[in-house]
Amino acid sequence: MKKLYLIRHAKSSWDNPELRDVDRPLNKRGLKDAPRMGERLKARKVHPGMMISSPAARARMTCQEIAKVLAFAADKIHIEKRLYHANEDQWLTVLRELEDLPSQKEITMMFGHNPGLTEFANRLLGETIDNIPTCGVVGAELNIKLWKEAAWGCGEMKFLDFPKK
Fold first, then answer.
1. Taking the mean position of all CA atoms in its chain, how far away is CA 80?
2. CA dihedral in degrees (43, 38, 83, 155; nearest 10)?
3. Please, which residues bridge with residue 22 across strands?
4. How far, in Å, CA of 28 to CA of 109, rounded?
5. Per-residue pLDDT tens digits for 103-139
6. Would you say residue 21 has pLDDT above 60?
7. What Cα–Cα distance (Å) separates residue 3 from each residue in 49, 106, 163?
8. Residue 10 and residue 141: Cα distance in Å, rounded?
């Protein structure tokens, strides 16, 4: 049994129209929501062995803020280019490629973007989530022993949490 947490980036800033999309940082609300969601995960006693983020600034910053709260070393965060605006098939490919050997990787967090993130959660877990809100977290258990066994419908959603909930 593997545990997976899918996290959409927190609210991003549109203050600087000159910035490329990939470079947009979190806004004030996002900087407040990310640690708050980290505290909620900490209260659930979530201890990830791996954190993987899209390279977009808003996703990386969300991941870093949650990592601080969970005492996960920032230098251990893996940046995965393929998660930037990935579709559900790209998400599944990245998940299947995770290393299976170290036991601390039984619990993984992945940070990215909609619509691909919501579509991935729905197909992986057999759910009908309309939209994972910004800084929303889907907690799931996957009925697999190795990440490479991940397939559509292999998991069960345990919770959906988000800042305004």
1. 12
2. 10
3. none
4. 23
5. 558 899 999 999 999 999 999 999 999 999 999 999 9
6. yes
7. 10, 6, 21
8. 23
pTM, rounded to two decimals: 0.95
27 close to 11: Cβ distance less than 8 angstroms: yes
What DSSP character marks residue 12?
Answer: B
Sign of the alpha-carbon dihedral angle for 14, 133, 114, 54: positive
CA–CA separation, 139 vs 135, rounded Å? 13
Q: List Cα–Cα distances, 41 to 22, 36, 112, 124, 129, in angstroms.
A: 26, 9, 17, 21, 20
Which residues, including other chains, have CB under 8 Å from residue 119's CB and lie 6 or more apart?
87, 88
